[in-house]
Amino acid sequence: MTPRPWLSRRNRRDLGLSLVLALLIVLALPSPPAAAGANLIVNGGLEAVGADGFPVCWEKSGWGDTPYTFGVTTQAHTGTKAMQITLSATGPGDRKAMMLENPSCAPNVTPGHQYDLGAWYTTTTPNTVLTVFRRDVAQGWVYWTDLATLPVTTTYQQRTVRTPPVPPGTDQIVWGITIYGAGTLRTDDYTMEDVTQPAPGTSCSAGPACTEGAWQVMPFNTPVRAIHAVVLHNGDVLLVAGSGNNLDDFAAGTFKTAVYRPSTGTFTNVPTPADLFCAGHVQLADGRVLVMGGNKDYPAADGSHGYKGLRDSFIFDPATNSYTRVNDMSAGSWYPSATVLGNGDVISLGGLNEDSSGMVATQYFSAAQQRWLGLGEANQTWSFWGLYPSMILMQDGRLFYTGSHVFGNGLPGTGASIYNYGANTITPVSGLQNKDQRDQSMSVLLPPAQDQRVLTLGGGNIDSNPDANRLTDLIDLKQANPTYTAGPLLPTGTLTGGVPQTAAQGKMYVSAVLLPDGKVFETGGGLHNRADPVYEASMFDPATNTFTAGLATDPVPRGYHSSAFLLPDGRVMAVGNNPGDGSFDMRVSVYSPPYLFKGGRPQILTLPDNTWDYGTANTITVDGPILKAELIRPAAVTHSSDPNQRFVDLPMTVTGTTISLNLTSNPNLAPPGWYMLFVVGANGVPSVAKWVKVG
Ligand SMILES: [Cu+2]
C-alpha cells in the first residue's frame, strides 16, 4: 500500500485534540472489555445529541486549511440525524467523523479478538477511508490502521469490514470515516460486533470480566426520574416518573414518562395524563402495558393525611408511545401489585386507598372486556395485602404472596401465604425468616418456571431501620403444603464502592434479574432507609442453590426507587436511586454478564412464526450447537418488585441446526404476552433475543 503523506500529521493532530477532550470530558469510569454479539457503539445511530446539537460520543476531527462544512443532516439512513462533511478541495488535510476518545464512549476491546465495523454512508468522492485508532495501555491513543475505502454512492450503502486481531496491550479503540477528497460524505448507523470464535477449549481472555462481568455507565442521563421500568416488545424501555417523588412537580401538575431506545441511546418524552408515581404496571397479552393507580396526593403538611392512591388506570401502547384511559379501578391504589393470569386477566392487590388507608379490595381487570370489574363483580376477601405485595402466579392458577413488600413490617401471621382467587381463600405459608425485616426484599420465580421454586432475597424495615439483612428463603411451590426453607446468606457487600468494610452488610432495595443462561443476577441495594448504598453483586445458581460472590458492582448507588432488568441483548440495565436527601440519580448503568466475554454468540437465524399457541412445537434455525432455549417475560419492575418476571424452559427437538421448541400447554406457566426467545450455546453463551408472542 502506498504511504499517504498526510498520515503522520493527521495522527499528531488527533492525539492533541484527544488530550484536550480527555481532560475536559473524561470521567473515571470503569472500562469493561467488549461484549460479544451486541452493538458496541454508543450512540451508533447518532440520534442522541448534546447541547451543541452534535451527536453524543462523536467529534469533528481532522487537519489542514481546506475549507469545509461539518454538521448534522436530517438526510439520515434511519432516524433523523446523520453526520455530513463537505470538503471543497482535495487535500492537503482531511476531516473525520470520529468517536470520542472518552472511556464511556470508546468501545472496549479484547486483545486478540476481531471485530466487524459497519457504517451506512453516501459519498461523492472515492477519497474516503475507514480509520481506526487504538488505546495502548502504555502509550495512550495511537493510530492503528485504515481498513477500507468506501466506493462512491449517492444512496445509503452499508460497508462492513473486519479488523485484524487487536494488538496486545490495547483496551479500547475508536474509529470513524475520513474524507480527504473534494466532495460530500454522509454517515449513519455505525455498528461494531465481536466476531471472535473461541478455539475449542480456550478460556475467556477478557481478564476479570470473564468471571465478574463488567459495568459501563452510559454517557447520558435519563430525562425523567426512572422509578418504573417496563421492557417493551419492540425493544424500547418505558420509564415512568409521574411526579417522581418531587412535591414541586406534583403541585405544578408536571408528570413525566420517557421511552428509552437502547440501540440508539435516545429518549422520547411521552405526555403523561396523571401522576403515575408509584403506580402498578403489567404487560397485557397484546404487548400493551396496563398502568393502574398512582399518586393522588402527597402527605399533608399538618399530618392530617398520608399519601393517597389514584383510581385512574391507563393503557400504554408501544406502537404509538401514548397512554389511553380505561375505566377507573374500584378503589384508589398507591403501591398496588399487578399480576397477569393465565387467561390474560390481571389481579391487583394492596396499596393505599384514596383516603390513604389500606386498600382491601381484590381489583380485577378483564382482558376480554378491557375494563376493571366493579367491586361486586370480583371475588372479595377484604384483606389488606400491604404495599407492592409480591404476588407470583403459580402453575395451578393460585397466587403466592412471597412476603416481599414495601415499607415497614410484613403482614401479620407468617408473613407469606397462598391466595386462591376462585375459591376466595388465603392459606398461610410458614418458614419465611424474620418476616418483619423483609421490607423491599425481592422475590423471583427461579428458572425454569416449570420447577415452581421462588427465591426471596434480603430486606430491611424503614420504620425500625435495622441494618438490612442477608437472608434468603427458598420454597418449592410444587409441594402440597409448601413451606419456605432458609437459603444461603447473600454475600457481604461494602458501603463505599470497593473499600472493604469490617461489618457484614446486607441489603434492602435489592434487584434480582433472571438471565438467559438460567442464573439470577443480584445487584444494588442499601443498608438503611434511603441511605448507605451497598456495593455488592452476585450470581445465584438455581441448580446448586449457591451464590457466586464478587461480581462487578454497579458504580452508581442503587437504593430506593432503583431497578435493574434484562435487555433483549442479554445485558442488564440499571436505573434510579432516590436517597433521603430527595435527590434522584439519573444515570444509566449497563452490565455485561460474564457470558458476554466468552466469544461467539449463537444466533437465531430464522423464526418463521413468532406467534405461538400453547402446547405447540415451533421451529427455528440456529447457526451452531444449542444447549437450551427459553422464553423470558420482559420486565415490568419497580421498588424491587416484578412478580411477573419468569423464565420458561422450552424442551427441544434438535435436527442439526433446525430446532423444534415445545411450548408448555399450561398458560399459568407462561401467561399470554410477548416474550424474549433466547437460545444458549454449548459454552453457556446466550443469543440476542427474538420476540415471540405467546397465547
Ligand atoms: Cu415509591
Main sheet properties: 5 strands, antiparallel
- Report the CATH superfamily of the largest domain: Galactose oxidase/kelch, beta-propeller
Strand content: 35-45%
Mean pLDDT: 91
Report strand order across the widest sheet: 1-4-9-6-7
The general outline is globular
The CATH topology annotation of the largest domain reads as Methylamine Dehydrogenase, Chain H
Question: How much helix, percentage-wise, in residues?
Answer: under 10%
User: With helices defined by DSSP (H or I, 4 residues minimum), what is the helix count?
Assistant: 3
Name of the CATH first level of the largest domain: Mainly Beta
Heterogens = copper (II) ion
Describe this structure in words.
With 695 residues, the chain is mainly β. It folds into 3 domains: 190 residues, Galactose-binding domain-like (Jelly Rolls), CATH 2.60.120; 384 residues, Galactose oxidase/kelch, beta-propeller (Methylamine Dehydrogenase, Chain H), CATH 2.130.10; 91 residues, Immunoglobulin-like (Sandwich). The chain has 3 helices and 52 strands. The strands form 13 sheets. A 5-stranded antiparallel sheet has the order 1-4-9-6-7, covered by helices on one side. Strands 2-3-10-5-8 form a 5-stranded antiparallel sheet, with no helix packed on it. A 5-stranded antiparallel sheet has the order 15-14-13-12-47, with no helix packed on it. The longest helix has 19 residues. The protein is globular and about 80 Å long. It starts with 6 loop residues before the first helix and ends with a strand. It binds copper (II) ion.
